[in-house]
Specification:
Helix content: 55-70%
Radius of gyration: 28 Å
Largest sheet: 3 strands, mixed
Order of helices and strands: HEHHEEHHHHH
Structural class: mainly alpha
Strand order of the largest sheet: 1-2-3
Shape: elongated
Distance between the termini: 57 Å
């Protein structure tokens, strides 16, 4: 399955878990592919064991059919969860550091303040349509409406002959 282990709705995993029968062994590549939280890993393992189904993890060479394998599986679950939490903390720290340096994530603004003022002035003159102003500024009409929502309102009033 290509879905992240962090996602709850994973149809391929759900189908495999439903299909598994007593005596089967569910093989996963890595422990974090089964689930990302310790609670979910333990719940899944407990549910499968209750149905007589074992789990093998290829990357960590785990096998829940033995007592040591079960214990090691639980320890690896803890480690996987800690690793994920540390990764999350590092990501948040990196984003905070970037913000402190003035860097902001996300898509760059299409129009600067000067362009917005210019577009507003051109539209207020009334000798150009929204499409013409957008073309002149090399932006789409949707972008222009995003930055100047009143332009849509004014256009609607002009179409109906009201101001």
């Amino acid at each position: 399955e290509k879905a992240s282990g962090a996602m709850r709705d994973r149809p391929q995993l759900a189908a495999a878990l439903e299909y598994a029968r007593p005596g089967d062994v569910l093989v996963v590549w890595k422990l974090d592919r089964l689930a990302r939280s310790l609670r979910l890993i333990l719940d899944t393992v407990e549910q499968l064991h209750g149905r007589g189904i074992e789990i093998r993890c290829l990357q960590q060479q785990l096998d829940t059919s033995s007592t040591w394998g079960k214990a090691f599986f639980q320890m690896m679950g803890i480690i996987a969860e800690v690793e994920r939490n540390l990764n999350h903390e590092r990501t948040l720290a990196g984003l905070a550091s970037a913000r402190a340096r003035g860097r902001v994530g996300g898509r760059p603004r299409k129009m600067g303040d000067a362009q917005v003022i210019s577009a507003k002035a051109l539209l207020e003159r009334g000798d150009r349509t929204v499409a013409e102003v957008a073309r002149e500024l090399n932006i789409s009409t949707a972008t222009l409406y995003k930055y100047l929502p009143a332009a849509r309102h004014n256009l609607t009033q002009a179409e109906h002959g009201t101001h």
